[in-house]
Write a structure and sequence with these properties.
The chain contains eleven helices and twelve strands. It is an alpha/beta fold. It has a seven-stranded mixed β-sheet, with helices on both faces. It has a five-stranded mixed β-sheet with strand order 7-9-8-11-12, with helices on both faces. Strand 5, helix 6 and strand 6 form a beta-alpha-beta unit. Helix 1 runs parallel beside helix 6, helix 2 packs parallel to helix 4 and helix 8 packs across helix 9.
Length: 298
């Protein structure tokens, strides 16, 4: 199975053969996975310039694909993302790798658990968080053919299988005690952690726009309006949109994600980081027990 990055590079390269609008802008990262062509521009280690060049190409009618590690694509050049793309209402596709801590050996510089929360402060962005390389392809093809602003968050972490890419959330399992919403690569861990627990499991590969109506349907079908949100980035990132979707219901919401008070200074492994943030199966299962202890079995 190819990685998400490989699926991304292959899909963009194929699309460039038939769509003359497409242009890739890089800052050294992934320069070896794209062909040598005048529509693949490597600006060097100048991330702010990378985003600015992408916006300039959008102004000229091109469809830019801007790509790097998440902290170099969203955090370091955030002003350019906000002003050059957002304030000027330009379209483009930003594609990140590294996720929250895919490469802990590189240290904190290559970690960006707050990337989706930052993008969420800006209007008009579609945010995809696929959980499998086969989900990357249809999401990316649609983004390349569109005119809007898209953030595609790729990860080395994947689920065992891909799910059909839909406009809303996918119902993976039905139950009565409440709803667990798993985002992207968190689904397999959620399914294992909720084994034997009578809850509905929803899967989201797209988090903005947020499928509030899909969540409402799932909550109304359960006996309790309890929602456990499990995201692979900063905890609480989507709590506000869950609250908005359930504003007229007496709902109880809990969020799991990369903990705000648990920034690790030791490099460790991906599994160490998962455990520290309670994002491994044991941590998710413990949260499920606390949330749904009024019924079912954990």
């Amino acid at each position: 199975m190819s990685t998400m990055r490989e699926a991304f590079a292959r899909t963009v390269t194929e699309a460039m053969e038939t769509d003359p609008r497409l242009v890739v802008v890089l800052a050294e990262i992934s320069r070896d996975v794209f062909p040598t062509t005048d529509r693949v521009i490597n600006v060097g280690i100048r991330e702010q310039a990378m985003v600015g060049v992408g916006a300039g190409l959008a102004l000229s009618g091109m469809r830019p694909v801007v790509h790097s590690y998440a902290p170099f694509l969203v955090e370091r050049p955030f002003e350019q993302v906000k002003l050059d793309f957002g304030h000027q209402d330009l379209g483009g596709v930003l594609v990140s790798v590294g996720a929250s801590y895919d490469d802990p050996g590189w240290g904190r510089t290559h970690q960006a658990p707050g990337d989706v929360a930052l993008i969420d402060t800006l209007p008009g962005w579609t945010v995809h968080v696929p959980g499998h390389p086969d989900e990357v392809v249809p999401l990316l093809r649609a983004a390349l053919a569109a005119e809007n602003r898209v953030y595609l968050r790729l990860s080395l972490r994947t689920n065992a299988r891909a799910y059909p890419v839909t406009e809303g959330f996918t119902v993976v399992r039905k139950g009565r005690l409440g709803v667990v919403l798993a985002v992207g690569p968190m689904l397999d861990r959620v399914l294992e952690a909720t084994e034997g627990v009578d809850v509905t499991v929803l899967y989201a590969a797209t988090v903005r726009p947020f499928d509030g109506e899909g969540l409402r349907r799932a909550v109304r079908a359960a006996d309790h309006a309890d929602v456990l949100l499990v995201e692979p980035y900063l905890e609480g990132t989507s709590t506000h949109v869950v609250a908005e979707a359930l504003a007229d219901l007496p709902a109880r919401v809990r969020s799991l994600g990369v903990q705000r008070e648990a920034e690790l200074h030791a490099y460790g492994t991906v599994e160490d980081h998962d455990a520290a943030h309670d994002l491994d199966v044991l941590g998710v299962a413990a949260a499920v027990r606390r949330m749904y202890e009024h019924g079912g079995q954990a």
